[in-house]
Amino acid sequence: MSLPGWNSGIRNGVLLGALALAAVVALNYSELPGLGAILADLPAAVAISAAVHIPQILLTAAAWRALLPPDRRPAFGTMAMLRWFRDRPMRCCRPAP
User: Which one-letter DSSP state was computed for residue 68?
Assistant: First the structure.
């Protein structure tokens, strides 16, 4: 089942993303040689971030699950996904101080 406008939405999103990437590269062309060093360090940064955030999300999910009445507790995976969904917008869309 295909939703109306879905394909054009994907096409427009890819086109907009490509244009944004091209603009960033064009505006920062003089800094491209340093990009190699940043990309070389990226796997370590992602691993460190995951090592900190994933246990935090799982442990908070377990803590919230423990607060619910036993007969109404969702599965641990459900609570972990709820914590993950709750955590993502706060990281992306923080209000300005």
Answer: S
> According to the model, what pLDDT value does residue 59 have?
94
pLDDT at 1: 47
The residue assigned the tokens 């990281």 is: 91
CA 47/CA 15 separation, integer angstroms: 30
What sign for the dihedral angle of Cα 28, 32, 38, 43?
Answer: positive
Coil/strand/helix, residue 96 = coil
Across residues 32-40, what is the average pLDDT? Answer: 77
Distance in angstroms between the alpha carbons of the first and the last residue of the chain: 44
CA–CA separation, 75 and 28 (whole Å): 47
Among 59, 49, 66, CA closest to 83: 59
pLDDT tens-digit readout, 44-77 = 888 888 888 889 999 999 999 999 999 999 999 9
